[in-house]
Amino acid sequence: MTRVFARKALLPDGWADDVRLVIADGRIASLERGASAAPDDTLVGSVIPGLCNAHSHAFQRALAGHTEQRSPAGHDSFWTWRERMYELAGVVDAKALTAIARQAYCEMLASGYTSVAEFHYLHRDPRNPDAEDTMFEAIVSAAEDSGIRLTYVPVHYERAGFDDPEPAPHQRSFAMTIDAFLAHHARAVANSGAAVNVAIGAHSLRAVSHESLQEIVRVATDAFIPIHLHVAEQQREIDQCMGAYGRRPVRWLLENFPVAANWCLVHATHMDHDETEALAKSGAVVALCPSTEANLGDGLFPLHHYLSNGGRIAIGSDSHISINPFEELRWLEYGQRLASQSRNVVSLRDSHVGRELFLRALEGGAAASGQETVGINENAPADFVVLCDDDPMLAGHDDESRLDALVFSGYPLPVERVMVNGNWCVVDAVHVDRDRSRAEYAAALANLGAMR
Ligand SMILES: [Zn+2]
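A: This is the predicted complex of the input protein with zinc ion.
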């Protein structure tokens, strides 16, 4: 049993003082406000809930910083970046994936994420092409080693485009038949321990046929699990979808499927006014990934119109060009400020923008990852982040503005400790397995460099 005495804690109804948490079997067994510390308590500063990283491709952590050189043709875009990503995807085997994903997950924990939804379509191990599930097992062991709470999202990928029913040669490490995919999903459900949630996903409308998507949606509906897919990230996809289906992607999805609260649409960048309103009213969550969307030149999500119609959001670090939830929230707001030439855009419920962004991402991330509870509460999983009260970022801030400081001050994060499932994963601002993770990550990259 672990006992934590926090000077302050952000609870579902706001900040509380002198909060004592008793943790047993990975859960908060009791929570007392206005308490006194007992001799064996771990004394900490301010405690906040950890955020969910609602959209991750862990293997792409190895690509960060490697695609920032202009190509000889000078026409760089999402599609030229994708060629580089395919090169990496073709050589990452299960051993390398374990090391890369573990490093990404350790970095997530150290920056204040406590859970991740891993959108996983790298199903084939190039060293062991006949093995069915080694890449899935790599993700699970990386999550276990790092301590992060995992929602595994197996993702179906079957074709090169709307008019091309076969995968291209470089997509063969992702592609499988719908029957093989559903069998993989069933094995993932059967073989995951209690610590892993299993959701389901389709890569995108261009990569999955209407018929296969119907089968995936049936599984999600029957099991009442989250369903994730990329949608409307790039203008080219809008044009192709209009050509093939006669509708914009989000509009087509809303007309053909029962899009509801268990759906997580990733990006949804390019929507017209009516699509934005209809998607907001569906109850679905949109996973926004501002650092990746900026890096890839995707475009800007119509955030204010979406939120003002009741839309729900989560955040993700997607390609891991950056792993910092507060930076994602900051750039989510900054994109809107730059586009509208105004300030404090996401202030529909609360005049404090940082607090509103954080609480929206907390609720949306919990929904997208299938978590049963939101925030720090009795009987909830013992997942939380301890902030260092002595950090200059928080000096002079009170309960009103503490989350604004976290989101909008671009200084090193004051994350002192992180607990997931009752275990301390980060202590004194360092992941408890940092050195081994770094060494094995560097070795994996050196090995991949030799293979590429
Ligand atoms: Zn993605």
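DSSP finds 14 helices and 17 strands in the chain. The mean pLDDT is 96.
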